[in-house]
Amino acid sequence: MKHFIKKAARKLRAGYLEEVSGELRWMYRYIKKYRLWVLMYIVIGIAGAGMGLGVSVASRNLIDMVLSQDPARLAGMAGTMAAMAAGSIAASAAVSRVSAKIMVDVQNEMRGEMYSRILYSRWEELQLYSTGDLLNRLNSDMGIVSRNVIGWLPSLLTKGFQFLAAFFLILYYDPTMAVLALVSAPLTLLLSRMLIRRMHRYNREMREISSDMMSFQNDSFQNLQTVKAFGLMGVFSGKMNALQEYYRERLMDYNKFNIFVSSYLSIAGTAVSYLCFGWSIYRLWGGYITVGTMAMFLQLASGLSAAFNNLVHMVPALLRAAASAGRIMAVEGMEKEDTEDPEAEELRRYRGPVKIELRDAAAAYEGEANVFSHSCFHVASGEIAAIIGPSGEGKTTLIRLLLGLLEPAEGSAEVRWKKDGSDEYMCSCRLSAATRECFSYVPQGNTVFMGTIAENLRLVKPDAGEEEMRRALEQACAWDFVSAFPDGLDHYIGEHGAGISEGQAQRIAIARAVLRDAPVLLLDEATSALDAETEKQVLEQIIKSDSRKLCIVTTHRPTVLSMCDRIYEVRDGALREV
Prior knowledge:
Shape: elongated
Number of helices: 18
Oligomer: single chain
Mean pLDDT: 81
Domain ABC transporter: 356-578
Pfam families: ABC_membrane, ABC_tran
Keywords: ATP-binding, Membrane, Nucleotide-binding, Transmembrane, Transmembrane helix
Protein name: ABC transporter ATP-binding protein/permease
CATH topology of the largest domain: ABC transporter transmembrane region fold
GO molecular function, one term: ATPase-coupled lipid transmembrane transporter activity
């Protein structure tokens, strides 16, 4: 049994070390990329540390010259000491400047890469993370990692140089003093082994708690109107207090451990200082050293102890960065959407009629039962198809299947098109991320972004002119109210559509979809905030504007159903035409 426990412990340590080393290797690739700047950082840092040590030696000589009344060399030594002090200050300033430049470059690059990775990742994998968690990883974790990518290795080498140089300098003058200055090192190293594992676990836990808090805050702010409407401010404040209390409990638990470690280091440092001070007095009393040498010893011993403690404290900082790196790596490891498809490339160049077709298709979320199965669906250019059905039966799932956010669990889902003057839809391509350019999508709710109306429209067509945007707004029955704004197309929309009504936001979103000029228009309850007459007018104008357009709407309104060429119902796990 004892042998089994030891074997299990070894495997656990091996797995832990492998995890941490993998996170550190991931960080190293950024250090390698900026190696010239990091090298400059290291050289300047070591030069500054060397000058600091030079000040200690110069102060020794200066004190001895004053006591021996040697004015001939006093001015020169004072000048040397001042020059070294100025050099040390200049080196510190240069390190600060270089580190700031590298940090902002690394942070921007890393954050930009991670942001793009999130945007291009598979939709299903993104559902494993809450918005708050992703924001926490993108900002807080990225900040921790970028700071350590820049500073950890240079700090290690600079502090290491400072430690070794001080040690050998003391060793040169007095070997016993060098031993006394490091008397606390074995116990400190032993304690650091305890600190490493606990610190890594704590950092992971605290980052997760922080993500939970950010997710909760983001969710409550996104639904602030509902919170206020139901008078739930006290309920949500209570939940926030509960999250903060849990955070406090975990923080205080770690703080207890941290106080123990800090107290030990303080006691050890104080004891070493007194030992060195006592030994210096003894040597001075015996006439073995001068007053200047004693002052240098005390200064170097203090610097040696401080450098050693700094090296020990760098371990927790590195583990904190490793924990954050692990969280970033988890997001970076998400599978990217497949946007490369030769057939989709041909479809993008095509400008004729198209057809959307599902044959014996099934849709399911990973690890769950089919939402619907053995389903067929087809709609061609010039047609409007409605999707109806009770809530929760699969209408939104069908939209996700059409947009390539989900892949069919069974059967096929394709977009088809004609070729070489044929009347048949001979060419086909499976629906995926690569075919998404063929769709203009208007989801439920408010989907306009902060910025002007023109900026919202140009998201889908950056080179759109004012006349082109006006036509799109007219088709969406939005031009009348847009032209009535004092700034017109430059009217600013705030967060969550502040400054316009829900119906106006929907019509701007529809105009944006129209401006994209894609052959397929998906409207997911996108006209719910419009009156029946406006809704009918919008749909008629969209279809009349381009004969190759086909429109798919999810709706319950009879006025829309009366305009549709096809009506499909999702019910009892199947999609059927009615």
